[in-house]
Amino acid sequence: MPFPLKTCVVCSEEFELKPGKPAFANRCPECSEPDASESQAGSGTRTSMDADERRTLAEANEARRQSMRNLLYRKDS
What we know:
Layout: E1 5-7, E2 14-16, H1 29-43, H2 51-73
Antiparallel strand pairs: 1-2
């Protein structure tokens, strides 16, 4: 049984939609390759934080929580 022919929405070329291939259903494999490489590169660019940055972030989050708590539960007396 032949694979269905689809038209790529990016380059307008026809391609066979094969099961198990890493591509979008409306893009040919050549046009969907850059998207796959960007998602892999994006996950590896995470920077590590040192102790001072983590402490500063934790203090800022605690201050936000405290402010929200005061705004939500203060008494209007």
